[in-house]
Amino acid sequence: MKSNLAEKRDYVSSTNACKACMPLGASIAFKGVEGCVPFLHGSQGCATYMRRYLISHFREPVDIASSALGEGEAVFGGGPNLKQGLVNVINKYQAKAVGIATTCLTETIGDNVPAIVKEFLDAAKVEGPGGKMPALIHASTPSYAATHAEGFHAAVDAIVRQLAHPVARHSGINLLPGFVSPADIRHLQEVAKGFGLKATLLPDYSRPLDAPAGTSYEILPGGGTPLADIAKMGGAAATLSFGWTPYSQAAGRDLQERCGVALHDLGLPIGLRQSDAMFEALAALAKREIPSRHADQRGRLLDAMVDGHKYLSGKRAVVYGEQDLVIGLASFLAEIGVQPVLCASGGRGAGFRENLERVTEGLVRETVHAEPGVDFYRIAELSRELKPDFLLGHSKGYLIARELGVPLVRVGFPIHDRFGGPRLHHLGYRGAQEMYDRIVNALLEQKQSESNVGYGYL
Amino acid sequence: MSQMVFEERKDQFFETGTDKPFRISCDKQSLAGAVSQRACVFCGSRVVLYPIADALHLIHGPIGCATYTWDIRGALSSGPELHRYSFSTDLGETDVIFGGEAKLTRALDELIPLHQPKAAFVYSTCMVGLIGDDMEAVCKKATERHGIPVIPVMSEGFKGNKRAGYYAACEAMFRLVGTGDTEGIPPMSVNLLGDFNLAGEIWIIREYLERMGVSVVANITGDGRVADVRRAHGAALNLVQCSGSTMELAKMMKETYGTPFMRVSYLGADDMAQALYDVAEFFGDAQAMERAKEIVSEELGRIYPRLKRLRKDLEGKRAALYVGGAFKAFSLIKSFRLLGMKVVLAGSQTGTQEDYEELASICEPGTIIVDDANPLELMHCLIEKDVDVFVGGVKERPIAHKLGIGFCDHNHERKLALEGFVGMLNFAEEIHATVMSPVWRFTPRRTLPRLEEVAA
Ligand code: SF4
Ligand code: SF4
C-alpha cells in the first residue's frame, strides 16, 4: 500500500498544523478541577490566543490567567510576575486551586516553577476561601516538546502527583478518561453510577466547559473534580485509565507506583469492542452484571450496524486528530466495514502504528497507513492520492474535504465550524451509535445530493 | 463596581458625567494574573500583514503561535490565497538549544519554490527573541537566493502589546514601499490603509471611490498584493482607517515620500459619508464632490426604509461596546445613535489618552469608559448598566451570552461586512437579530429575581 503513496516528503516546516500547543491541553485539564483557574506562566499572547481557540469550540467563557511577562522579565526571570499574578488570581477568583502551566518562553528562560511556588507559599499572606491556601498545581508544558494532547496529560499527571497521596483504602475507583468531550464525561458518570460505583473522574470539565445558562457570569464555574475526591484517589480500589499512548497512561501508572492502586489500562472506549472492554472492566470492578440499559444500548447499536452495513461496506476514510482518539476511531471504523486509509496525527507518541494495527487486525483488508507527526499539508497530499469517501476528524480538515468533494464527519476537538461540538458523544455504545448514524447520514446525504434523480427513499 | 477593579487598574476606568477631571491610564503592560483580553506583539503584526494574499507568512517559533492564527479571519482575496495557509518553523527542543537559524533557512528554501510567493514575511515569536536568532541575516541571504523580498517582522510577543506589533508590521511593509514603479498612477489616487477586507469590505469602499473617479493604488492590507504595496508611494493620499494599526506606515510615508494622510472611518452611515466628502474635498474636485453626494443619497435611500423599520424596534435599547481600537468606538456610538439606541459602556484594548478624551466627550453622561478590560470587570459593567447588546470580539461573546445579553461580533474575525452603507444596514440587522430574539425572555437573568450581589 505504502508504495502507491506519494513518496514520503519530509518537510522541515509545518503548514497547517494538526496539533495545538501543550499549555492549551493543560488549561483544559485544569478546567476540570473544582475551583481551579488555569494560569499560564509566560507572555500575555499565548493565554489570549488559547482562550480564543477554546471559546470557539466550547462557546463558554474560558478564563486563563497569565503572568504577562514583558521584556524585562524575559531576561531576568519571571518569578516576581508569577507570584504577583498568583496573588491577583487568588484574591479575585477566590480560587480553590490554580493550575500553573509553563509556556515556551518560561521553559526557555529556565524558570524553576516548583521553586518559585515554594518561595511563594513560604512567604504567602494571601488567604483563600475558608482561610485555606489554594492548591497550587504546576505542570511543565513547553510546546516545542509536544502537542496539546501531551499537555493535557501532563496536567492530569501533575494533578495526581501533587494532590493525590497514599491514603486509607476505600471502595471507590478512579476514572481517567483522557481528552474527551464534556458530553462523554457526563455519560461516563452515568455509566459508573449505573454500576453502583463511586468513581472519581479526573478531569471533569463537563460543567466548567459546558455550563447551564445563569443569572450572572460565574467567575469560577461550578463543577470540576472535587479536590477532596482527588486527595482520596491514592486509596481507590482501582484506576481505569483510557488511552494507548505512554503519556496518556502516565497518571494511572503513577497512582499504581506511588499508592499501589491497581491499574486497568484500556484504550478509549470507542466502538463496539473497546466499549465492551470498558463495560466488562466496570462489571468486574463492581462485581455486577452490566445494567440492562447498557446491554440494550449495545443491542441497538448492533442492530443499527446490521441495518446500515451496506451503506458503509468497503468505504474508505481518512482519520486525524489526537493519537488516542485516532486509534479509537480506527478501531470503530474497522468494525463497521470502513477501511481507514490514513490515520494521521500531529502527535509523535510511541506505539501509534502498532496500536492501529492491533485494533484493526482481522477486520480490514489493507494495512492502515499511519502518519504520526504530520500537518494538514501532508494529510491533503496523501488524501488526494488515497481518495477517501469521507473524512473523520475535527474542523481543521474541512478545506481538504471541500477540495475533494467528500463529507467531513466532525468529531473531537476543535469544532469551530459547527454547533454543539462539546455535546457530541464519542464513547461507549451511545457514542458509537451517534457516530454511526452521523457517518451513514453523511454518506447518504452525499449520495442524494449528487444523484440527478432525487430519490426520497434511500 | 469599584471593588471589582483591580487596585492597580483603577486608573484605567472612568465614568463620564462625574465632576472628576478626566483621567485614565492606558498603554500599560497587562497586569499579571488578570485575564486580559489583549494579545501580543506577534498578534498585532499578524493581524496587519495577514491579508497580503500573495506573500508567504512564515511564523518562526513553536507551533502554537501558528496554530491559533490559522485562517481565523475573514480577510478575503480576489486572487491568490496564500495568506490562508499557516506556515511555521515548528521549533523543537533541539532548536531551542542550538538556535533556529538553520531550520528557518531550510523552511524558506522549501516553501518559497513550492508556493512562489511575491514576498515572504518572517515573524519572530517570543522564543526566537530569546534564543537570539539573527533573523535579519537569514532573511537577507534568502532574499539573495530566491530573488524576492524576504522581510523579518520583529514581533517577539513579550516586547510589548498588540500596538508594538502594528508598528513592527508597518516597519516591515515600509521596506517594500518605494521599490515599485509608479508609472501611470493618476493624480486622483489613494491607498487604503487599515482595511482588511473582512467579508469583502474593501471592495465596497473601492467601488464608492471608483464611482467618484478616485483610483486606488494599494490596499493595505485587505486583498493586498506585494506589487501594489511596492508602488504605494505613487499615490496622492493615504486614507487611514483603524487608528492603531497602520498609522505608523502613514507617518513613515509622509516623512519619506511626502504622502499626506487622512483619518477616515467607513463604519456607520455618518462616518462613511464624511469619508467620501473628505476625499473629494482633499482633491478639490467639484465633480468628485458631486458624485460623492450622489452616492450618499443614493445609498442612503436604498437602506433607509429598512433602517427605519429596525429602529422602531430598537429605540431606547442599551448597548455596550468593547473593541480593539478607540477610533472604531466613535463610529459605533454614532451608528447606535442612528438606531435610536444608547451606548452605556465603551472600551478598547489599545486606545490612547487622546482617544479616550474624545470618547468621553461624545458619550452621554453616565457612560463607562474603560481601557484593557478583563471578563470580571466587563461582567460587572454589563450587569450594572443592564445592557441589551454587547459589541465585541469572539472572546467577549460567551460573557454576554452567559449573562443573557445579546451579542454582535465586531472584530477582525467577523464574516459579515459592516463597512459602507450596506454595512450599516447589515450592522442594524445583526443588532436587531440579537436584541429582538425571544430567547432573552427565558434566560435566568429575566426569569429569576436579580441577584443583589453578583458573585462578589
Ligand atoms: S507554542 Fe509556546 S509560545 Fe506559542 S502559543 Fe503555545 S505556549 Fe505560547
Ligand atoms: S509565544 Fe509570544 S508571540 Fe507566540 S503567541 Fe505567545 S506571546 Fe505571542
UniProtKB/TrEMBL annotation, chain A:
<keyword id="KW-0535">Nitrogen fixation</keyword>
<comment type="similarity">
    <text>Belongs to the NifD/NifK/NifE/NifN family.</text>
</comment>
<protein>
    <submittedName>
        <fullName>Nitrogenase</fullName>
    </submittedName>
</protein>
<dbReference type="GO" id="GO:0016163">
    <property type="term" value="F:nitrogenase activity"/>
</dbReference>
<dbReference type="InterPro" id="IPR000318">
    <property type="entry name" value="Nase_comp1_CS"/>
</dbReference>
<dbReference type="InterPro" id="IPR000510">
    <property type="entry name" value="Nase/OxRdtase_comp1"/>
</dbReference>
<dbReference type="InterPro" id="IPR050152">
    <property type="entry name" value="ChlB/BchB/BchZ"/>
</dbReference>
<feature type="domain" description="Nitrogenase/oxidoreductase component 1">
    <location>
        <begin position="21"/>
        <end position="443"/>
    </location>
</feature>
<dbReference type="Pfam" id="PF00148">
    <property type="entry name" value="Oxidored_nitro"/>
</dbReference>
From TrEMBL, chain B:
<comment type="function">
    <text>This protein may play a role in the biosynthesis of the prosthetic group of nitrogenase (FeMo cofactor).</text>
</comment>
<comment type="pathway">
    <text>Cofactor biosynthesis; Fe-Mo cofactor biosynthesis.</text>
</comment>
<dbReference type="InterPro" id="IPR000510">
    <property type="entry name" value="Nase/OxRdtase_comp1"/>
</dbReference>
<dbReference type="InterPro" id="IPR049939">
    <property type="entry name" value="NifE-like"/>
</dbReference>
<keyword id="KW-0535">Nitrogen fixation</keyword>
<dbReference type="Pfam" id="PF00148">
    <property type="entry name" value="Oxidored_nitro"/>
</dbReference>
<comment type="similarity">
    <text>Belongs to the NifD/NifK/NifE/NifN family.</text>
</comment>
<protein>
    <recommendedName>
        <fullName>Nitrogenase iron-molybdenum cofactor biosynthesis protein NifE</fullName>
    </recommendedName>
</protein>
<feature type="domain" description="Nitrogenase/oxidoreductase component 1">
    <location>
        <begin position="40"/>
        <end position="435"/>
    </location>
</feature>
<dbReference type="GO" id="GO:0016163">
    <property type="term" value="F:nitrogenase activity"/>
</dbReference>
<dbReference type="InterPro" id="IPR005973">
    <property type="entry name" value="NifE"/>
</dbReference>
<dbReference type="InterPro" id="IPR000318">
    <property type="entry name" value="Nase_comp1_CS"/>
</dbReference>
<dbReference type="GO" id="GO:0065003">
    <property type="term" value="P:protein-containing complex assembly"/>
</dbReference>
